[in-house]
Amino acid sequence: MIYTFNGNESYAHAYMICRFGHCLLIDPNINYSEIESKLGDQILDGILLTHAHSDHTSLIHLFNVPIYVHSDDAALLFEDKYNGYSKDNPRPYVRKQLNIQTIEDQVKIPLADHEVVVFHTPGHTKGSVSFLYQKYIFTGDTLFKESVGRHDLYSGNLFDLKRSVLKLIDDLNDNIIIKPGHDDASTIRNERKNNPFYIKWKKQGKI
């Protein structure tokens, strides 16, 4: 079961995947009461972060579970100069509240009898990741419907973003459904045919 908690101009989408009474929460930042309602009496096994920007992380301290973040983005959770928190938007969590578990490329996070596979997809941030679960890929701010994420923020890199987008679209099955951090869902097939960034970068060749 996939639950989507739709974001807005200030917050990203959050997602929860559940199987046999166990759940994983992706980028919790909005709709806490709705998340709690959907969770019900199921067990939350952990939080998965696609990256450490404030519009993806503002509820992470409200759940007493492990928080999985790539090792290259773990420090960014607390670097308010770069992560989007500020005096007007103060960081709601402190380090001692969080059970941080760092992850790397191809790590497999169990969910009941299945698993979530980590794809390191840097470019938006150095530690950006995407999470593959069954026929879904949760891409954070790396890949959007017919677009891609920004690379001009702290630890972002255009060449890394190109490699990550090419990796996702070239390597994944056409029928994989893309669940991005913002805007509408898509499929790998649609992005292969219609994403102008992918088409341009593919013509340029591998980086």
UniProtKB/TrEMBL annotation:
Which Pfam families does its entry note? Lactamase_B (PF00753)
Q: Which residues form the Metallo-beta-lactamase domain?
A: 11-182
Metal-binding among keywords:
yes
Keyword Zinc among record annotations: yes
Which UniProt keyword terms apply here? Hydrolase, Metal-binding, Zinc
CDD domains to which the protein is assigned, alphabetical: metallo-hydrolase-like_MBL-fold (cd06262)
A GO molecular function term, named singly, is: metal ion binding
Q: Which Gene3D superfamilies match?
A: Ribonuclease Z/Hydroxyacylglutathione hydrolase-like
Q: Which cofactors does the annotated protein need, by name?
A: Zn(2+)
Question: Matching PANTHER family, A to Z?
Answer: HYDROXYACYLGLUTATHIONE HYDROLASE GLOC
Q: Protein name, please?
A: MBL fold metallo-hydrolase
* Species assigned in the record: Acholeplasma laidlawii
